[in-house]
User: What shape does this take?
Amino acid sequence: MIQEKIEKLVNDALAKTSFKEVGLSSCIEASKDQSHGDYTTSVAFKVAGKVDKKPIEIAQEIGGKIKRDKDISKIETVGGFINFFLSEEALQKEIYEILEEKEAYGSGKEGKGKTVVIDYSSPNIAKSFGVGHLRSTIIGQAIYNIYKFRGWNVVGDNHLGDWGTQFGKLIYQIKEKKLKGLNSEQKKEMLNSLTIKDLEDLYIEFHEEVKDNPEMQEKGREWFKKLESKDDEANEIWQKALELSKDEFDRIYQILDVKIDNSIGESSYIDLAREITKEMQDKNIAVESDNALIVDFSQDLPPIIIKKSDGTTTYLARDLAKIRDRIERWNPEMLIYEVGVDQSLYFKQLFKIVEMLNWKKERQFVHLAHGLIRWQNKKFSTRRGETINLEDILNEAIDKSFELISNDEIDLQEKKEIAKMVGIGAVKYNDLSQHHQKDIIFDWQKALALKGNSGPYLQYTYARCQSVLRKEKVKTKDIDLSKMNDAEKSISRELVKFEKTVKDSADNFSPNIICNFLFTLAQKYNLFYNDNRILGDNKRLILTLATAQILKNGLTLLGIKAPEKM
Ligand code: ARG
Assistant: This one.
């Protein structure tokens, strides 16, 4: 990788200066603007924080010591930055690698021998798949793909929300409203006829009725307690809700083209949760308070309940059990949780307990907190009247995308398949292209814009490359990329940044870094396409082929399909 080489050049130079004493090493970044070179380092600013000298002087001193290399045509210091321009030879070599390595180009080995567990999607049963869990699913899957590409052993783990007091309430309501007075045959029939929508309505109804009948609260708790003590009737009703939900989630995952390695729900962790709670009590990490057990962090964080006063387990206890299970199964170096920002405090508390239990060791725990997704000034929520059904949105995206496909050589069946790729791609890209911590607004026009930073724009650019490549065969041997014009050079310089981009997006847990890169590349390619005759020019065909490959590799990491025609 060329950037590693540059990094080494800078570090070697640094070691030859008096600044080596400060013990810093350089960090190379891909330049945002090609006029500032291809790669840049701000190491001088870091050094300036430690010695009494201006960054610009430090940069010049380091710059002067950098060994000449045939891959670099120019090194310049601007302000305190040291900028590197790649030589035509280096660009050519790298483009050649793109053509050689194909779908593996951009992959890496820094994760070799290391395991990361990614907790994503994790919807709650007895509800339709909310738009809120959409973000977790999309971002989590992209992070999964990116880490895998960088050589990690990746485990995707769907921590299904299938346990908790809410199911006690639901069971109570089902019994009261649906099962009263029925014999066991009729009960079975009734349970089989229930839909997710019914469950949602019953739950909402419970919350409306409880306002006037506060004793229902206690009933709900009782039924959860029964469920947790493996009561047959409670279990039968819960089981039904679980089945219904699993079918629904599978359908959504199929539309989204997402497959999660494991899906072990919270319900599988009751015994272990109790065991851990007991251990924590023995170690005085959990202490009694009003008949419940809590973890008190003194000043740092507010306390949190680990066992309810009625003896039932909590979300926290089940999460701790899950962690222990993950450690035992996979002994991961890293655990990433892709869960909404509203659980930030909770994850701080959870990770703190992990430290208190001495489970952390060298492990890194990361909460990737995504912001809200909004829709026409509304928060997506399951409160009555504001419910937005995800499946409807996805289907709408597919329908609207159908209209975007303008190539009339495509037959109806194929058009439908492409519309699915484009529609789902648009929804995913809209989410991934913005920093995950930001709240996002879903805007059809923006998501489906054929011009602009959108999924369809990238797919369209890819299809455009493919259409060129169908017209003329590229000679991939003996390529000569010397004497490139500005547009050609500009694309080449963009293409070769792909690997660094993927690595940065992994290090920063930010798929949007890949999106920005792909958008810039697509814009450059389209400019080039408009201003240059590509057919009949092998060099330009090569650049088209390489662009197509990189667009495809990038989109694949994002979980977005690249259609051959559009
Ligand atoms: N089911 C939870 C919710 O919807 C998210 C679970 C996230 N993962 C975890 N290990 N806590 O709020």
Q: What stands out?
A: Confidence is low (pLDDT under 50) at residues 379-385.
